[in-house]
Amino acid sequence: MHHSSTIHESLTAVFQVRRFPTGKAAGQGVASGVSGPCPPGRRTELAVLLWERALDPQKGTWSLPGGRLGDDEGLDASARRQLAEKVDVRELTHLEQLSVFSDPGRVPGPRRIASAYLGLVPLTAEPELPGDTAWHPVSALPAMSFDHGTVVEHARTRLAAKLSYTNIAFALAPSTFTMSTLREIYCAALGYDVDTTNLQRVLARRKVITPTGATAAPGRAGGRPAAVYRFTDSGLRVTDEFAALRPRAE
Amino acid sequence: MHHSSTIHESLTAVFQVRRFPTGKAAGQGVASGVSGPCPPGRRTELAVLLWERALDPQKGTWSLPGGRLGDDEGLDASARRQLAEKVDVRELTHLEQLSVFSDPGRVPGPRRIASAYLGLVPLTAEPELPGDTAWHPVSALPAMSFDHGTVVEHARTRLAAKLSYTNIAFALAPSTFTMSTLREIYCAALGYDVDTTNLQRVLARRKVITPTGATAAPGRAGGRPAAVYRFTDSGLRVTDEFAALRPRAE
Question: What pLDDT was estimated at residue B97?
């Protein structure tokens, strides 16, 4: 079998739950007047960081940040380096490998094998973006380059799965939050609404979240002050293992 | 940055829970007289498929099956093709990507980027192996080639994690089994014993296993006939998502 030159690249789907303005366009690719369920009537959405190609191939389509692996670096370091051109990597709260995209025809020209990553940025971060770069709701992607839309879909599926059995929401949430804000984050990341009371009960019982003891002032709607929580851990862990499978205490 | 030629390869850790003979050597790399906890005094162990290098570099060390990605194939197909030289791929009940090993110095010579896979074979399969290939207990690996020992460790960690929140044990178990056999499999794969009654209760409640209605004849120890189960699904699924995060029924 003849082996021609192959390029290896990283591609990162950086996600953030963002509050888009309602009733007006919120940037390129964002339909106006749309409102979502999180909470009903507002537009908190899972968004992905994309840049617009100024040159062919596929000029005008939108791409994930990434680029060619350097000779002297590993893939994780390369992904972080490529991201640093688009967003301050200190604002990344989580980065993990997804799968490798290796279809021989995935891009025109020399073969490129892409290691895909999922990156997360918390709700309250507001990274400065280069002029060619913008946040787009995952529910309304613009024309995507090559197979980058498929990478976004893989990343979204991985995130939704991990929300169900890990504490990964720590990487999307501010350092402290009310349950109302946390529900808004879960709803946007999952794409459907969840019940605040159930969410609080499940996450507290599994020690995923911890009350800080503080309360937040009531919102415009009034009512009682809301308890403020934080995530118990700031590293990824499986929160929900079968108790029957834990090693026995000695 | 200068880019020299880079090779992309697959490497697969194929695992099987195997019953090694007690009290005597069970092949190269297997210590004699060792007995484990699954069940106590027997030697059911998680084993990995390795082949011995007949040539330098690192002649005499043991390697995972794998090899160079062909120009006209994707990585998953390549991993299956490489494996077919060592084990009939029809016996593989599960294959998934782990992470990519991309350290520039991981092997001598031209750079090789390895996509690592986890493969599973059920307890009762007995693939015919080439002469250079053998099953080794993961707890007593022989001298391993390059970073292949690290790949095995990643695969073992992934498997143990997935045993706790998915039905992945379907790929290690025979098509039907008693709880005693299933406990033996979990114990070997996890490296510590689990309680049969708890295991049955948790897996049945979560609908991971289903009684077939049949019973197995008592073993040498006598006693009542044991209920026979099967896995409800033969594809991987997360079994243990937060109920609070399920979409509401309409």
Answer: 95
Helix (H, G, I), strand (E, B) or coil at A81: helix
CA separation for the pair A134, B214 (Å, rounded) = 60
| Residues from chain B contacting residue A73 (CB–CB below 8 Å) | 104
pLDDT digits (tens, 9 = 90+) for B166-214: 899 999 999 999 999 999 999 999 988 888 998 999 899 889 999 999 9
> Does residue A228 contact residue A212 with C-beta atoms inside 8 Å?
yes
Q: Which of A118, A154, A149 is CA-nearest to residue A136?
A: A149
A81 contact B CB<8A: no
**Contact list, A115 vs chain B (CB under 8 Å):** 100, 102
Is B238 within 8 Å of A161 when comparing Cβ atoms? Answer: yes
B-contacting residues in A 147-176 (Cβ below 8 Å): 161, 163-165
**Apex CA B174: angle with CA B169 and CA B179, to 5°?**
70
Band (pLDDT 50/70/90 cuts) for residue A42 is confident
pTM for this model (two decimals): 0.86
Task: Give the pLDDT confidence score for residue A221 in this predicted structure.
Answer: 67
Q: Which of residues 15-54 of A touch B (CB under 8 A)?
A: none
**pLDDT at residue B164 in the model:** 85
Contacts of A194 in chain B (CB under 8 A): 244-245
- β-strand partners of B118: B13, B96
Q: Please give the Cα distance from A168 to A165 (Å, whole number).
A: 9
This model of the complex carries an ipTM of 0.80
